[in-house]
Structures are given as structure tokens and as C-alpha cells.
């Protein structure tokens, strides 16, 4: 296959387009095996993580297939390279979502501890109302995400830490924008989201600080779980977080 060095500032999308160019010119033919990940990274002059993202994207949209123990192959029944751009941008945005979710897990599993220690009756009332709005919007995905946004915002406000609250609200807003752009019907199980949110509020009301943090972790893990079902690389993020977060000792 033909290889040209990609600039260091290139994204995985540019690597995908370079691979597509090889397909269009016939350098890569149906059934061909791709070089190993390390070789591709060195040849194109990009990081191995960029190679993994590009390959996962092309697997998801139907260009490549992974055969366990044998390698990565160009499929025989590939779609037209000219029809990839829209689905490619959606797939690659999933990795941005995973980074944002990881950031939220770090911040929100800690800010909820402050909420559990400081929330008053008005905070609890506001949190319960956001969950009722989630229940009312369960069949309206946009309305549901808006209600979920209000739930997380209410948790931030209950922490009584304005700096953390503003930081997290900005991250939540950016993440929810991406939810609506990337497969919104598959990113969240509404019933599970409502159930875990309710447990978070119960813990806040009971001032159970450590359990509130764990329940927030479970709530935030719903989206990565859904993504890992369609993008194998997303499982890496979930496994890393679970190793760190769920290794916390249970409260006696």
C-alpha cells in the first residue's frame, strides 16, 4: 500500500482519508491485510492512538474487519469511499465524547460529595423535580437530555461551590450538544438513567457522601457503556475508569 507521512497536527480523520485514498487508487484492495498498528503509526508519522481511532471508525462504518489472531482486513463488500464523510465525523466525535465523559466522571463524582454534605431541603426539592421532568420526557430524546442537563446542574448548585459548578456546567453543556449530534437514540437508556439519578438524590438526601459518589459514577457510566457496544475502543475508557473508581473501598 502507498504511504505518505501525515503532519503531526493531523487528526484521525485525516488518517482515515489517507487510507481511503489508498482504496480509491487501488493500493488497498478488498481482502488486503493492513500493516500492524505500530507499522502504520511509524509510516504515517502519527501516534498509535490516532491509528486505533481511525481503524475503529473504519470498522464501524463498514470498511475494515478485525479477525482475531489474524489482523485487520479491508472488507470485500466495502461501501463507496465517497459516501463516508458524514458517518465518519459522527464516529470520530464519539472519542471526543469519551474524553468529556471521563472528565465529568472525575469532577462530578467529587462535586456530588459536596452536594451530599451541603444540600438543603430546597436543593433536594429541585433535584426531585428534575427527575420528574426526565420521567415526563422519556419518549422525547431532546427533552430528556435537557432534563438530564438540569439534573446535573442542580447537583452542581447543591455543592455550593460556584467555581466547580460553573466548570462542570460548561462541560455538561458541551457533552450534551454532542449527544444530540451522535446517535442520540442509542447513547442512553432513559429508564436506567432515571433509576441511577434517583439513587444519587437519595444518597444526597441521606448525606451518604461516599455512596453518592459511587451512584453518580454508575449514572455517568451509561453513555460509555452504550458507546462500547458499537465502538470497541470505547471499552478501554470504561475499563480504565472502573479500575480507578470502583476500586474505592466500600463504606462499612
Summarize the structure.
The protein is mainly alpha-helical.
Notable features of this structure?
elongated; about 70% helix; Arc Repressor Mutant, subunit A; about 250 residues; mainly alpha; 2 domains; disordered C terminus; Four Helix Bundle (Hemerythrin (Met), subunit A)
The helix content is: 55-70%
End-to-end span in angstroms? 59 Å
Number of helices: 11
Write the element-wise H/E pattern from the N-terminal end onward. HHHEEHHHHHHHH
User: Which structural category fits the helices and strands?
Assistant: mainly alpha
Uncertain segments are 5-10, 248-252
Under CATH, the topology of the largest domain can be stated as Four Helix Bundle (Hemerythrin (Met), subunit A)
What is the C-level CATH assignment of the largest domain? Mainly Alpha
Main beta sheet, described?
Answer: 2 strands, antiparallel
- Work out the number of β strands: 2
Tell me the strand percentage band: under 5%
Radius of gyration over all CA atoms, rounded: 21 Å
The CATH superfamily of the largest domain is identified as GntR ligand-binding domain-like
Shape: elongated
> In the CATH classification, which architecture of the largest domain applies?
Up-down Bundle
Mean pLDDT across every amino acid position: 81
Amino acid at each position: 500500500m502507498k504511504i505518505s507521512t501525515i503532519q503531526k497536527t493531523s487528526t484521525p480523520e485525516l488518517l482515515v482519508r489517507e487510507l481511503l485514498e489508498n482504496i480509491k487508487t487501488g493500493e488497498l484492495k478488498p481482502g488486503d491485510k493492513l500493516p500492524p498498528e505500530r507499522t502504520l503509526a511509524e509510516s504515517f508519522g502519527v501516534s498509535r492512538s490516532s491509528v486505533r481511532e481511525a481503524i475503529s471508525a473504519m470498522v464501524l462504518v463498514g470498511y475494515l474487519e478485525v479477525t482475531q489472531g489474524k489482523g485487520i482486513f479491508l472488507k470485500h463488500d466495502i461501501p463507496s469511499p465517497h459516501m463516508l464523510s458524514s458517518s465518519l465525523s459522527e464516529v470520530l466525535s464519539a472519542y471526543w465524547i469519551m474524553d468529556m465523559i471521563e472528565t465529568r466522571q472525575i469532577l462530578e463524582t467529587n462535586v456530588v460529595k459536596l452536594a451530599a454534605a451541603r444540600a438543603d431541603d430546597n436543593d433536594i426539592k429541585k433535584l426531585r423535580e428534575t427527575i420528574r421532568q426526565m420521567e415526563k420526557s422519556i419518549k422525547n430524546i431532546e427533552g430528556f437530555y435537557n432534563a438530564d442537563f438540569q439534573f446535573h446542574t442542580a447537583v452542581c448548585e447543591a455543592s455550593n461551590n460556584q467555581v466547580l459548578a460553573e466548570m462542570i456546567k460548561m462541560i455538561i453543556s458541551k457533552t450534551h450538544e454532542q449527544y444530540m449530534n451522535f446517535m442520540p437514540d442509542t447513547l442512553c437508556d432513559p429508564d436506567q438513567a432515571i433509576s441511577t439519578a434517583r439513587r444519587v438524590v437519595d444518597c444526597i438526601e441521606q448525606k451518604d457522601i461516599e455512596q453518592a459518589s459511587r451512584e453518580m459514577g454508575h449514572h455517568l457510566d451509561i453513555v460509555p457503556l452504550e458507546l462500547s457496544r458499537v465502538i470497541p475502543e470505547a471499552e478501554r475508557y470504561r475499563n480504565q475508569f472502573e479500575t480507578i473508581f470502583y476500586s474505592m473501598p466500600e463504606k462499612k
